[in-house]
Specification:
This protein is mainly α. The protein folds into two domains: 169 residues, Tetracycline Repressor, domain 2 (Orthogonal Bundle); 132 residues. It is 76% helix and 0% strand. It is an enzyme of class 2 (transferase). It is a multi-pass membrane protein. Pathway: Porphyrin-containing compound metabolism; heme O biosynthesis; heme O from protoheme: step 1/1. Converts heme B (protoheme IX) to heme O by substitution of the vinyl group on carbon 2 of heme B porphyrin ring with a hydroxyethyl farnesyl side group.
C-alpha cells in the first residue's frame, strides 16, 4: 500500500489505540490540567457533575482539534520521522474516517458544553477548536515562521474555558493565564524545533530554525522568556494570588531564564550537541505544570 492510498482512504485496519493516538493524549493531558486549574481558581462554585462535564468537554474538544490537525497534515506527517507512525500516514486509518471522528467529537463537546454548562464556555471551546484546526494548522503553520507565536493562542484557551465554565464570563485573571501560556509556547516549541529542525525542513514547514537559522531562533527563545516571567508574576503583583504562588513563579521563572540563556549561548548546529535546548524543552513542560499547580494550591491556602 503506497502513501497516497493510505491518505486517500484505504486503511489497513484501525485499532482503538489509533483513535486514542489521534487525540494526542500527551498534549490533551496538559490541556485538561490547565483547564482544571482555570476552574479551580475561578470565583464561585460549579456542581461536581457540571465540573466533570466541563473538563470532559475540554478534553474531547482538544482531542478533536488534534485529530483535525492529523487529518490536515497527513502528508507532512508521512515525511517526518517523528510523526510517520501516526495512524493516517502509517496506513492504519483513512483520512475520511479520522475526519468523521474529529467532526463528531468537536460538535458533541461544544454542544454539551454550551447546553450543559453555559454558552460562554461553549463559545470559547468552539473558537479554540477552530483556531487550532484552521487558523494555526491550515493557515499559519505552512505559511509563516511566526506560526508558533500566533498559533500559541490555540493552546492557551483551556484556563479561559475553565474559568468561563464556573463564572459564565471572562475577566482579567483568565486573560493573564491565557497570556502566560501564549508566551510560554514559542520558547517551548522553538526549543523542540531546534533539535528536530531536519524533520521540519524535510516536510517543508517554515519553522523558524529552518527559515531564519539556529542562531536567530535561539535569540528569539531568550527574547520571549523575560515577558513570560513578567506575566507569570502578574497574578501575585495584582493581588490575585499570595506569596506562595509569587515565590514559586519567581523561582521557576529564574530557572527558565537561566536555561534560555544557556540556549542562546550554545553555538552547536548538530542535534546531538543541543543539550541546552533539550533541557529547556523538558523543563518547560514541568514549568507549566508546577506554576499552575502553585496557583491552585495558593488559592486553597489563602
Amino acid at each position: 500500500m503506497n502513501q497516497s492510498e493510505v491518505i486517500s482512504g484505504n486503511p489497513a485496519g484501525a485499532h482503538w489505540r489509533d483513535y486514542v493516538a489521534l487525540l494526542k493524549p500527551g498534549v490533551v493531558s496538559l490541556v485538561v490540567f490547565t483547564g482544571l486549574c482555570g476552574m479551580a481558581v475561578a470565583p464561585g462554585h460549579l456542581h461536581p457533575v457540571l465540573a466533570f462535564t466541563a473538563i470532559l468537554c475540554i478534553a474531547i474538544g482538544a482531542g478533536a482539534a488534534a485529530a483535525f490537525n492529523m487529518v490536515f497534515e497527513a502528508e507532512l506527517d508521512a515525511r517526518m520521522k517523528r510523526t510517520a507512525k501516526r495512524p493516517i500516514p502509517a496506513g492504519r486509518m483513512s483520512r475520511d474516517e479520522a475526519m468523521a471522528f474529529a467532526v463528531i467529537l468537536s460538535v458533541g463537546s461544544v454542544a454539551i458544553m454550551a447546553l450543559g454548562v453555559n454558552l460562554v464556555a461553549g463559545a470559547v471551546l468552539a473558537f479554540s477548536i477552530f483556531y487550532y484546526a484552521v487558523v494555526y494548522t491550515l493557515w499559519l503553520k505552512p505559511r509563516t515562521p511566526q506560526n508558533i507565536v500566533i498559533g500559541g493562542g490555540a493552546g492557551a484557551f483551556p484556563p479561559l474555558i475553565g474559568w468561563a465554565a464556573v463564572t459564565g464570563d471572562v475577566t482579567l485573571m483568565p486573560v493573564i493565564l491565557f497570556g502566560l501560556i501564549f508566551l510560554w509556547t514559542p520558547p517551548h516549541f522553538w526549543a523542540l524545533a531546534l533539535f528536530v529542525k531536519g524533520d521540519y525542513a524535510n516536510a517543508g514547514i517554515p519553522m523558524l530554525p529552518v527559515t531564519h537559522g539556529v542562531a536567530a531562533t535561539r535569540r528569539q527563545v531568550l527574547a520571549y522568556t523575560p515577558p513570560l516571567v513578567l506575566v507569570s508574576l502578574l497574578p501575585w503583583l495584582l493581588g490575585y494570588s499570595g506569596a506562595l504562588y509569587g515565590v514559586t513563579a519567581a523561582v521557576l521563572g529564574a530557572v527558565f531564564l537561566l536555561l534560555a540563556v544557556r540556549v542562546a549561548r550554545n553555538g552547536a548546529t548538530e542535534a546531538v550537541a543541543m543539550a541546552p535546548e533539550k533541557a529547556l524543552f523538558k523543563f518547560s513542560i514541568l514549568y507549566l505544570f508546577l506554576i499552575f499547580a502553585a496557583l491552585v494550591l495558593d488559592g486553597w491556602l489563602r
